[in-house]
């Protein structure tokens, strides 16, 4: 990547009048904000349909989109929702998502919209399904879950459909055709809106960095429809599950519970499932961050009946066999290796052999001069973060840091309090040799622990934080742009897009550039 900068903000965290961030006007306005701030990249979290605790890392499908992110105003513009229905869905802006309320009201509203689609839209949705083979299995999977009152696929009474028998699949497609049609439209709608948003981002010089979870959920369309790709027993239950041993995030480790892959089967067909997966992600993102990269080298396998992630063993991952396929098949994509966690020399060697940039997290840095996360130890081919979605904000980090960390941060960067930590880490990251620097938007705003996205190992209370419209200002964009330009991560033209006004002269022509930026948000 060229020397550049980006901001990490989940889609669900964007401002919105309807309870959760969406792909609507305020998302387009946020892209304008990033452009004005001199940023080249918008990094997001997975956008798939969620299940347990509304985590974007536990999804019903690795291919599908989350219907909660569909913009309601666009549905109203298409005549699919009435003004009164739209108004009833409006809620006061809040810094927290109320998922319970959304799950109560949003499905019924989307079904109302579906009941009003035109024959032309219905045909377009069917054509969408024909172009994307995963849609057929995913929509039937959801229809069957509704039919069986939410039971996971491995508990469905019909043994044939549980096995994804082709005859049973055809039979149930016929019996549940109306539900399948609804879920097909839902995905058609999501991807139509997403493509419009992504095309706009690309048109103003912004790329989207998306996160690809290393594992998929057991109760998902992916595992149900392609059981052979996963390490399951004859009843469809995993023998071992995914997780990580104790580390700096959790002294007990993390028991994720995802099924592990059957790498022998995947190798035999040239990793076809992964090729299809990356092909789907390439329609959403310009850069893919490979979550939990260390599992490519070796992964922590936990007995399925274990109650603790402390019990397990390291097993060999696919290594360059898979990485070589992914990088050679998709020349238009870039990748980032999330090389965090319990690492070994073998993991570092695999990352270097793949050529992928690794990650450097400044909040992990302050233990001594040999710490690999300190900027003076970086190489250019890496991505520097203040913190990721799994970390606290800079202010929150400093408030909870140990005395030893604070003492070394003072020696290294002159940090003496939470505010100097915030400014210091942003400037050290921007000024580092890392090709790409990414910060959470919370750190530019100056928020504390109340704005944290996720606490690993804690099941409740995550994935809820949201931006407020009044936090995204022209003044903040100018501050970020100035810092980004100062450290050579955006060009002078962007930096001088809105110069200070000379009291004795009229407004210079460059202001027109900002006017253009404002007009693009109106278009969105």
Describe the structure in your own words.
α1 links the parallel β1 (4-8) and β2. The radius of gyration is 24 Å and the shape is globular. It has helices at residues 25-36, 72-77, 83-89, 99-114, 119-131, 134-147, 159-162, 166-175, 177-203, 221-225, 263-268, 272-282, 294-297, 320-329, 345-354, 394-400, 403-413, 418-431, 441-445, 474-486, 492-495, 511-523; strands at 4-8, 41-43, 207-212, 240-244, 254-259, 287-290, 298-303, 313-316, 334-337, 358-361, 382-385, 436-440. Residues 497-524 have low confidence and may be disordered. It is built from 22 helices and twelve strands. The strands form two sheets. It has an eight-stranded parallel β-sheet with strand order 9-6-3-2-1-12-11-10. Strands 5-4-7-8 form a four-stranded antiparallel β-sheet.
Number of strands: 12
Contiguous runs where pLDDT drops below 50 for at least 5 residues: 497-524
* Structural class by helix and strand composition: alpha/beta
C-alpha-based Rg, rounded: 24 Å
Overall geometric form:
globular
Average residue pLDDT: 93
| Strand arrangement in the largest pleated sheet | 9-6-3-2-1-12-11-10
Main sheet properties: 8 strands, parallel
Number of helices: 22
What is the helix fraction of residues, given as a range? 40-55%
Strand portion, in percent? 5-15%
The termini sit apart by 28 Å
